[in-house]
Each structure stands twice: as structure tokens, then as C-alpha cells.
Amino acid sequence: MAELTIDQALQQGVEAHKAGQVQEADRLYTAILKAQPKHPDANHNMGVLAVGVGKVQEALPFFKTALEANPAKAQFWLSYIDTLIKLGKLADAKAVLDQAKSKGAKGDGFDKLEQRLKDAGQEPLEANQIFSEPQPKQPNILDTLKLDQAISLAKKKAKEGDPEEAKRIYQDILAKFPKNKRASDGLKGLAGRPVGKVSTVQHAPTAELQSLIALYNNGQLALVVEQAQNLTKQYPKAFAVWNLMGVSAAQIGQLDQAIFALKRVLAIQPDNAEAHNNMGNALKEQGKLEEAIEAYNKALAIKPDYATAYNNMGNALKGQGKLEEAIKAYNKALVIKPDYAEAKHNLTEALKIYSPKDNLRNPLIDLDNKIKAKHKKHALPKVDQELAVYTSNLLNKLQSADKNLSTQYLQIYRRNNVDLNCKRHMEIFKEKKIIPEFCFGCYKVQVDVTTVLDLIRLAALFYESEFESDLTRKCLVEVRPNIPGFYKGLIYCRGIDQAHSVKTQLDVHVRDIDKNLVAKIKKGCSEFPLAFPKYGEVAANEEEMLQYPQAWRALEVEFDVESPIPPKTYVNSSLKEFCLSDYLIIHKWIDYAKGIGDPTSELFCDLPVKYNEIMKVAKARVKH
Q1: Long-range contacts for 310-315 (Cβ within 8 Å, ≥24 apart)?
Q2: pLDDT exceeding 90 applies to what percent of the chain?
Q3: Residue range 326-346: mean pLDDT, rounded
Q4: What percentage of the chain reaches a pLDDT higher than 70?
Q5: Residue pLDDT, tens place only, 390-449
């Protein structure tokens, strides 16, 4: 991966990660680490990704590297300690926690980890524990036998009519060698055999449970679900087994199976708040938002200070378009846990599409209101020095309100309520090496400006401009390799006629920013003409341009059958004004400007650099 793309790759990796695109996130994080092996955020995110797919042991070195690279970040300590606990390395976890506390670490997250350590050190394995915490290692058949000997013994036990012992041996083998085909096939062969009488006890045998946990930790989630199904036939009240089944099924997208298992978890422990929250998440992924909200409310009735449940409920309410209620839910999460980064992010993004009516006494909401009011009352100054002062004052207020608040985004959008499904189109381009048919009718009117101050002015113009249709538009700093330019504004159009109409209207107004500015009509995503140069050639009418090859349609259909990515059915339109999240992005633009040596960035010399990574990317971009 080129050094130029590190910040952009991180942004795209986080977006893919949040969207559940594990392979794409892994590819992007790996590319970053090839360029910068000690990149703190990429290492940390790779660790989170590993834990998410059950590869807990593999997450450790990533978290350790992230922590060594940036020990000032509390979340890196929390992730590392949490993973050590998951692996049963309690002494190591205690030592790292003590080290963190000696460096001044404190807060709700560290307090909870300390309590978990105390609990883990005092209590034996219980069926009513929630198994995010694997227990210490149990004896394994491979401690005394070689692999071939263990396989032979398992076959012998199966022939002798002792399938349970054969099963235990196969599970021990898979715990150490997760991809061993002979053990996996042998275990599957035992699946149809009788499992004996149904037990009345609520605990599965410790050895069986430990084998299941080992499979989970090694990322064998489908096998966890399969083996848990067999175990629950014999131990139908084994809370821990049902819980592992539900968690594993949810992670591999088997949502019906996850919900079934979580219902059994709740039948055994109806007052388990975490299980209700997990149920809400699974239901939300299924699009059953009302049922998800009901599950979150049950979690909160049991545990009123459950910040995670409030945050998740906010996401579900936002999905329903209930924005006032969603913002209240995010606010409640932050009242309980003021440093909750995910809830802060969700709140600031919600404020881009809605301004709450109630006074919630939240400093971020208060600042967002001030930004919106200031822009309504005053037009942006036309003199560079005055615009720099105007912008710096708002950014300083933002820093005073929350110095740790940041953004992963580089683009200021004004969105309409139509999902163009660009995610699908780009995936087809990457996987099938074709341009989707939809994109042959997609045009953009582009304006390139020369300074960061003019980019801010262009963003203001895009907020103010009205066309025949409410068109999605955005302003950005360019970080993609092989794509020229630095500061851009884009307005997306359907058809060449609409693009010409928008260009004509825009050309009049951009001259207020710079008398030499002229808008240009381009076609589709910038990556497409690099692969298909003819596609990028824009003519007076569409008949004179490259036409969609009919042979590509079969490839599109194939993709939609194999990997369907439907458009969102409900999209919230952006407010037509600057907001808090925009100013987080503007600070990032200014750091970029400092990196490329934009002369107007000198007007922000008193503003501290907040995004060092984007500044490095900008510097490297100029060199190349």
C-alpha cells in the first residue's frame, strides 16, 4: 500500500469494520501495517477485529503494539487487559492493570476490569457466567499423545461405542489445530450419533465447555454453533453453552440461530441485562427495530445505568427516524459514561440531521446549537484573515467543550434521502472488474479550489445552493493515490442534462469565491476512468459516450445473487447548515493544509495540530 493512503485506508477500514465487512476491514488494516507496522490505531483495530471473529489469542500482539506506540490512549489499555482476562491470563492482566493505574488511568472501564479480575480469581467456572471470559487451560489429549495417535484413539473409541470420549478427543485436537480436517470430519461423523440421556443439571461438563471455549477463541464459530447444538440436546439448561451459541451465531450472520439461542439464555436467566442487550443487537441487524428497542428497554429495566444499551437503543431509534428520542438516548448514555467515545460519535452524527427541541444540557448539543445559530446570523467573512479568526474561534470552543472529540471523516456532506448504494457499485467494480450499469448514468459537477479557506467557503455555498432536485453534494480533501488535486467539491447528478443545468447555475456563484473558478462535469467515481479510460470521456450527449456493455449484466446479476448489498430503505437527509461534526472535519482540513504547505494555513498557526496522521499523508502527497 502506498504511504499516501494510510489515513484514507484507516477511515475506510473503520467504516468497513462498523458495517460488518470483516474481510475488507482486515485487508485495509493489514495494508496500513505493511507500511507502518507500529501504527497504533491500525494495530488496535486489528486486535478488535480478531476478538470479534473469536481469534482472541491472535489479538494480543496487536493490542500490545498499539499500547507501546501510544500509551496515553485509555482504550488501548482497556482492550489489552480485557483480552488477557478473556484468555485466563489473570496474573498478566492484573500486572498490566496495575501499570495502567500507576500511570494515572482511571474511570468506569478500569473499575469494571478490576472487578472482573477479582471475580475471575475467586469463582470457579459457573454456567451462569457470561462467556466473554474464557477460563484457565484444561489438560489436552495432545499433552500426552502425538496427533496421529490421538486420531487413532478417537476412531477406536467411536468403534467401541464410546462416542462421547471420541468427541472429547477430536475437540482437544481442534483446540490446538483448528483446521485439522481429520478431526473436523471425525467430529462431524459423530454428530448423528445418540448423545445419551438428557441431563437435568444446568452445567455442561467442564471439559466439554472448555473445548467449546477453545474453539470460540480460535475463531471456529460455525463449529461452536454446531457443537453447542449437540451439547444443548444433552444439557438443555446449560446457560453458558446457549450463550456461546448465540454470540457465535450472531458473529457469523446466523441471526435466526442467534435469536433462538439468546431466547434460551433469557429463559434460564430472564434478569440478565447483557443478554437482553445482545438480543436487541441481533434483532436490530434483522431490521426488527421495534423489537430491538423493546429488548434494550428490558436490559435498562434490569440495569438502569447500562450506557451501552442506551447507545444501541439510540441507533435503533435513529433507524426508525425517531431522531429526538435517539438523541435523548445517546445523551443518557453520556450522562452515565461521559467518556463514551462511540456515543459521542453517534450523537454528533445525529446532530447533522436533526436539532433537538428539548434542552438536554449536553455541552456538545449546546455547542452544535451555537454553531448553527452563528451561521444563520452571519455569512462567512470574505477576507481570509477574518474567516480564519471566525473558524479558529469556533474550533477553540469545540476544544474547550471536549478536547478528546475527533472524527474519522474527511468529507462534509449535504445528503438527500436517496441511497445511491455506492457501496454495492464499488464492490462490483473491485470484485468483477466492471463498472455497474447504474454508474453509466451517474455524473458529478466538480469544483477544485486552491486553499482550505476557499474549501470552507465552497462547503457553505453547497449548503446554500438549491437546484431543481435536492442533490447530494460534498466537499473534501483528496488523499487517494493516483487521483490528482487537493481540495474538491462534488455535486452528484443523474444524467448529462441535469449535470449541465447544475454546472450553469454553479458557475455563476463559484466566481464569488474566486473569479477564475469554473465547474467541470465528470462521470462516476474517479477510480473508474483509471481502469476504463473511455468511460471518463464526457461528450455533449450520452449517445456519444461509452455505452454499458450488455455482457456485464450477467456479472452484476451474479454478484447480486452471491453477495447482495441492497440500498438502505430509510436515509435521513442532512440539515442544510454547518454543524458540530462539520467543524471536526474542518479542523482535519486545516491540518491537511498545513501538511501540503497551503499559504492560508499560516493564519491558523495558533491552532494546535489535532490530526497528525492526516498531516503526514498531506506532506507525503506533496512529495509525490
Answers
A1: 310/336, 310/343, 311/340, 311/342, 311/343, 311/346, 312/277, 312/280, 312/281, 312/284, 313/280, 314/343, 314/346, 314/347, 314/350, 315/284, 315/346
A2: 47
A3: 94
A4: 91
A5: 999 999 999 999 988 999 899 999 999 888 899 999 999 999 999 999 999 999 999 999
Other Cβ atoms less than 10 A from the Cβ of 367: the count is 22
Please give the average per-residue pLDDT across 215-226, as a whole number.
83
Grid cell listed for 494: 443523474
The helix-helix angle for 239-251 and 221-234 (nearest 10°) equals: 150
Query: Could you tell me the strand order of the sheet in which 411-414 lies?
Result: 411-414, 473-477, 487-494, 442-449, 520-523
Output the nine-digit C-alpha cell for 114.
478490576
d(CA 74, CA 82) in angstroms, rounded, equals: 12
Burial label for 196, CB within 10 Å (0-12, 13-18, 19+), is exposed
CA 473 vs. chain centroid, Å, equals: 23
DSSP state of 442: E
351 contacts: CB under 8 Å, gap ≥ 6: 327, 364, 365, 368, 579, 580, 581
Q: 540: which 3 cell numbers?
A: 455533449
Domains and CATH numbers, the chain: 3-122 (1.25.40.10), 397-624 (no CATH)
Place of cell 456532506: 413
Whether 103 and 71 have beta carbons less than 8 Å apart is answered as: yes
- Joined together, the cell numbers standing for residue 583 give 467543524
What is the model's pLDDT at position 412? Answer: 97
Separation of alpha carbons 83 and 177, rounded Å: 21
Beta carbons of 302 and 269 less than 8 angstroms apart:
no
Hey, what's the cell of 149? 495417535
Give 55-115 as a DSSP string.
BHHHHHHHHHHHHHH-TT-HHHHHHHHHHHHHTT-HHHHHHHHHHHHHTT--SHHHHHHHH
Rounded CA separation 271/484 (Å): 57
Q: What is the model's pLDDT at position 330?
A: 97
| Tens of pLDDT, residues 478-535 | 998 788 899 999 999 999 999 999 999 999 999 999 999 999 999 989 899 999 999 9
Mean pLDDT calculated for residue range 215-221? 79
Where are the extended beta strands (E) located within 422-499? 442-449, 473-477, 487-494
Q: What is the DSSP string of 129-140?
A: S-TTSPPPPPP-
Q: What is the pLDDT of residue 185?
A: 83
| Secondary structure (3-state) at 476 | strand
Residue 557 contacts residue 546 (beta carbons within 8 Å): no
Question: 242-270 pLDDT, tens per residue?
Answer: 988 998 888 888 889 999 999 999 998 89
The three-state DSSP-derived secondary structure of 551-567 is CHHHHHHHHHHHCCCCC
In this structure, how many other beta carbons lie within 10 angstroms of the beta carbon of residue 456? 27
| Digit-coded pLDDT (tens) for 40-70 | 899 998 888 877 766 777 788 899 898 888 8
